[in-house]
Amino acid sequence: MFRAPEGVEQKLGVEEHLAMGRWWGEIGNDWDSHPKMLHKDVRRLSNDPAEGEVGAGADGWHIDGYSSKNPYLLNIMHFWEASEGGETWISPLKELVEGLDAETRALWEDLWFLTGDGKGKEFLHPLICKNSITGDPSMIFHCGAYKCWGLYRTEEKDKDEADRKMIDF
Ligand SMILES: [Fe+2]
């Protein structure tokens, strides 16, 4: 996240935003269009439907890109304005995973998160994975009611859907 110095009114331009994204490679997009989007690869979110897509990500804790085959390497967010009374909480996943007790960590290391892209594809992601750059532990999940389709132990994950038993959570 980037923040202009105190007292400086500054909005990152769309070309600067895209250029920053290209530092890390190809830019992808898997979201719907909005009339006010400045570029197809820069998603526009707002609490005003006339200004941007509303409600994105508001239905549960998640990582961005959870419903893609390969979740996002990174996400560049630029907030033009803060909403009154709204908050975005961000949790460091490395510290979260490393802070688990041994029994919980062993269970989570054995779990797979089932989700889909809403377009007919489903994906099973390891609940705990490694950050592909740092090698640190990280996670792939979404806690939203319609985003998490189930958690499965490793022994269940490759079974046919009818035979696969999810864990209670
Ligand atoms: Fe998000």
Model description:
- The chain contains 4 helices and 5 strands.
- By secondary structure, the chain is α+β, with helices and mostly antiparallel strands.
- Strands 2-1-5 form a 3-stranded antiparallel beta sheet.
- A hairpin with a 6-residue loop joins strand 3 (128-130) and strand 4 (137-139).
- Fe (ii) ion (FE2) binds next to loops.
What is the terminal-to-terminal distance?
32 Å
Number of helical elements: 4
For the largest beta sheet, what order do the strands appear in spatially? Answer: 2-1-5
Radius of gyration: 18 Å
Outline the low-pLDDT stretches: none
Main beta sheet: strand number and arrangement?
3 strands, antiparallel
Structural class: alpha+beta
Distinct ligand kinds: fe (ii) ion
The helix content is 10-25%
Proportion of residues in β-strands = 5-15%
Per DSSP E runs of 2 or more residues, the count of β-strands stands at 5
**Overall pLDDT confidence:** 89
| Elements, N to C (H/E) | HHHEEEEEH
Shape: globular
Q: What's the short version?
A:
The chain is of the alpha+beta class and 169 residues long.
Search tags:
169 residues; alpha+beta; three-stranded antiparallel sheet; 16% helix; globular; binds fe (ii) ion
Set down the secondary structure blueprint.
Blueprint: H1 14-22, H2 93-98, H3 102-109, E1 111-116, E2 122-126, E3 128-130, E4 137-139, E5 150-153, H4 154-157
Antiparallel strand pairs: 1-2, 1-5, 3-4
